[in-house]
Amino acid sequence: QVQLVESGGGSVQTGGSLTLSCVLSSNMNCLAWFRQAPGKEREGVAAFDTSGFRTTYADSVKGRFTVSRDRVKNTMFLQMNSLKPEDTGMYYCAATRISTWYLCKLTTDFNYWGQGMQVTVSS
Description:
Blueprint: E1 4-7, E2 10-13, E3 18-24, E4 30-36, E5 43-49, E6 55-57, E7 65-70, E8 75-80, E9 89-96, E10 112-113, E11 117-122
Parallel strand pairs: 2-11
Antiparallel strand pairs: 1-3, 3-8, 4-5, 4-9, 5-6, 7-8, 9-10, 9-11
C-alpha cells in the first residue's frame, strides 16, 4: 500500500508563505498537489513528472507556487508565496505511475492521495 504523509499546513496572513511537504512510501513518477476550497470542487494546483520534463501549474498559482522534490528523502514540496485568501482550502498531495512523462498532467488520474491538510489565509 502506497502512503503519502503530508505536513506543513497552517494559517498565515495575506502575502505570507507556507511550504507543504509530502513523504511518499514508494517511488512514483507523476506527482501533484490539489486543493479544495469550502463549497468548491477540488482543483489541481501543480503536477510534475519526476524526470523533470514538465511541470504544470494552475493559472491561479503561476508565479507564486513552486513544486520540488527531494529524491533521496522521497519527499515532494509545495512552496507557496504571496498567499491570498482565495488560496484557503484543504491541500492534498497525489501520486501515480505513468508510462511516459507527457502523461503527467493536472488531469491525470492519480491513484494515491495524502490525508489532506488545511491552509488558511486571512486578510
